[in-house]
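User: I'm putting together a teaching handout on how multi-component assemblies are represented. Below are the sequence lines for each component of a complex, exactly as they appear in our records. Could you produce the 3D structure of the whole assembly as structure tokens, so the students can see both representations side by side? Please keep the chain order the same as the input.
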Amino acid sequence: MANLKLTNICKSYGEIDVLKQIDLDIKQGELMVFVGPSGCGKSTLLRLIAGLEKITSGTLEIEDVVMNDVPPSKRGIAMVFQSYALYPHMTVRDNMTFALKIAKIPKDDIKQAVEDAAEKLQLTDYLDRLPKALSGGQRQRVAIGRAIVRDPKIFLFDEPLSNLDAALRVATRIEISLLKENMPDSTMIYVTHDQVEAMTLASRIVVLNNKGIEQVGTPLELYLEPANKFVATFIGSPAMNILPSKVEQPGLKTLVSLDSGGAAMVPIATKNADLNCIFSLGVRPEDVVVTTGDDYIFEGKINYVEALGEVTLIYFESASSEEHVIAKVVGIHNFKRGQMIRLNADPEKLHLFDSEGLTCKIKSNQLG
Amino acid sequence: MDNIAGKSSLLSWVVNVSALILVLLWTIPTFGLLISSLRDKDQLASSGWWTSLTSVERNLIERSAAPDEQVEKDGVYMLSGNVFKNGGEITAFGWSSKKPNGFEPNVVAEMRNGQTMSVATDGSYQLTSPKPFTGSRGKRIFIRSIEDPKFTLANYSEVLFAEGLGQSFLNTMTVTIPATVIPILIAAFAAYALAWMEFPGRAILLVTIVGLLVVPLQMSLIPLLRLYTNIGIGKDYIGIWMAHTAFGLPLAVFLLRNYIAGLPREIIESAKVDGASDFDIFLKIILPLSFPALASFAIFQFLWVWNDLLVATVFLPNTEETLVMTGRLREMLGSLGGNWEILTASAFVSIFVPLIVFFSLQRYLVRGLLSGSVKGG
Amino acid sequence: MQQILIALVTMGVGIAGCIAYFWGSNFLLDVIFPAYGKNATHNLRRSSAIRPWLFMGPVIIILTIYLVYPVVNSIYLSFHGSSGEEFIGLDNYIWLFSDEKFIESMGNNLLWLVIVPAASTLFGLLAAALTDRIKWGNIAKSLIFMPMAISFIGASIIWKFIYDYRGEGDEQIGLLNAIVVAFGGEPQAWITIPFWNSILLMIILIWIQTGFAMVILSAALRGISEETIEAAVLDGASPLQIFFKIKVPQIYGTIAVVWTTITILVLKVFDIVLAMTNGQWGSQVLANYMFDWMFRGHDFGRSATIALIIMILVLPVMIWNVSNARKDV
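Assistant: Of course. Below is the structure of the complete assembly, with chains in the same order as your input.
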């Protein structure tokens, strides 16, 4: 069973910590995506797994064998680099057979492996070309092919789509996900800073921030039940609105009031001690509805309207919250700049974060 | 810049002419040498090479046939023949050094004792005398003649076969080929280690090598000569190969390290993931990708060793079997200072190979120069 | 032909030796510390600590013997007599600074140091500026760069031919005297005239080095952002102003590099002087003077002392280079 286990992994360059206390379990057949803002350490984590960087402390196990000091080639991994890292002086075929030749695999097996991979990736016609004679997407496929022929236990992808243009990126993303379906037993780890890529490809996502893991879960878990304010705002686009709000009435359901005059009864439990604390109310732009009634969460002046056709994005002027409040309403609407409007939302879709930024998790109905 | 509107054509004219002048100034010396080396030995010594395409007017002193060839006819003794061996045209002649050009061609000049001399335009002469000619040598005939320009490869065959330059050419080859190839391999491995392997003291080593780049060669000569004598290497090819290898190494390591360090990190990491050892990576990835840098260094080292005089003088004995071309040229300059036909041909033989290398591989040379000097070479 | 064969064989043996060394030592390392078995991890750490030294080994050994040791040994020799054996303290240095020829050499070297780098850089800049603006620029560059491939001794012959002197009344075959005569002057034996002969020798080196300066400066000039030049055009600057006020200031760094590179070369130059005058007629320079004491004077102490002086003159450049290199290590 190709599983990969990270226990208390730390990495530092001299005095500077890059990763702290990473614990992670990856099961066979998963496509695990590491996502996070730049500088969060996601690429470093991948390189630690690959063996391209030394682990400062903690243990890395692949199939229950400690791999900390095993060189990259002996870990049973294959890696697809951001710049593809094709050997420019070798043909596609030579690029794909390089590792196999070094491993002294019999010639016939090499030939078979290359032909299979080339067919899978529609590269059969290009086997004798040099990388410089290929398009960006083809190079990308060669890089993947080079990984496939090695038949590794774990595939590592380091931002493989970031050098492609937008259209090709979507196409290649679909290809990768089909590839994964064809190889249900192989484990893949995929690093990206693009949350759309993460949501569409992953069987599970690891959100990294500030040298550590923020949350691990399936894409929808992260979307529906973010563990904290960071994950809530990182996953989803436009980002979740975060509204500072005061706990007026704790209990099984919590009543909060907002600066703008609105209020909400959130079906999430809070403790008595939370009374009068400033919490954050989270609501996704796509979950709000425009209302004219007195029952509203937020009232604000429209600063800017983007009409995209299928949806309309409304940006509000705001003094209190750090970011613009954004509403994403379906269809075409005739809102004007400067207009005051009120927003409401289904209470079930509201999120509440305590003063530490952690999600208040206990839903009222779960207690019920 | 060329597309900017309203650009004056006068300026471009001035630029073109100035560039032309500069190019002429820089090529004329070599061009003069080449032309001179192809000229006839006598013409080379009597007129500037820039006149080589026009006919040469020369004052010569020839001698008539010896008196024992004289013919008697009607009591008049005659000597006749032609002053030219290869043809030419007489513009004037004379019979004494006081008036060497005193007579037009075909005129009959009166000499002492009733003798006469006449020389025709084509060089045929006739001397007459009422008494028999005496002595063992012929009479002097002063002529002024116009000669056609003459070009010949004789100078080259002379220097190559008679003056020993051919041997020296071989000696230079013998020194240059190994002294160019050996340092490349040694330096390439070190450059890879300095660029991509981690070990303590790497930075210090690199800085030391940069420092050694400028150490004057002169510094090494005496200590090495003493060292060679002490361990008994003596003056031999092996000694000079090693010396040239050593003197070329700092530049080689520096150039190659800069180039290799600039190769994309991901390619090397990818090879590591593929299971390549450092040795594999070096041989299969680094060497093929470093070809341009290897070529530039090879050209540098080739030109430097081929053109070197100092190291060869110090480390090779001054004998026929080992004297290199630069050393031979230097000897010729000392002993044959005025024999320009030898010197020009020899010089051209010695610069011929470097020029071919230069013109055919110039872009690598330029690339090497640029990468070497970006950081201070 | 047999000799070339020997050379080729030697080259083959040398290369085979190199490969055998690198491959063999690498192989041995893998055998001694195999990357598998129970000690694999330990072995890997060992072998990756040793491997860099295998790669660096030959370079370190050769450079130590051929460049580092000589510096130390020269310092030692400079305090010893002509055979290099008896200790004589500072005598060599005292002799040096009272020696007329040495002072002449120093004077000439300073002159060389000022004129050659300055003139080469200037002509190089001019050539770069001109050839970058014409259609046949690449050919022009090639031709100006060509002397770079010619040996100093070959160049000396070329120029000795130009400086050649024939007695008055004879037709001059040296270009310089022919020109002088054509303008009604009297021919001179140029290389025997003190001071001017040094200048004539410098011209040879300038002729060789201008191409080098041109190639590097031309690359630097082309590296300047087009936009700053276009901005200057829009600001109404004339071509000359653009060149001196916009372009040249942006390549000061490269000019400094060219200048110092030629400076070092000047300090080491000896072939030209040896071939043209051998230091006679007041044209001696340090490198040739050192050679003189080594081969004709057979005095190891004195020549080592002169070599040290050259080394000391190079030292500032070396320090500058090293401090530059440290920045990007």
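A couple of points students might notice: The mean pLDDT of chain C is 82. The radius of gyration of chain C is 27 Å.
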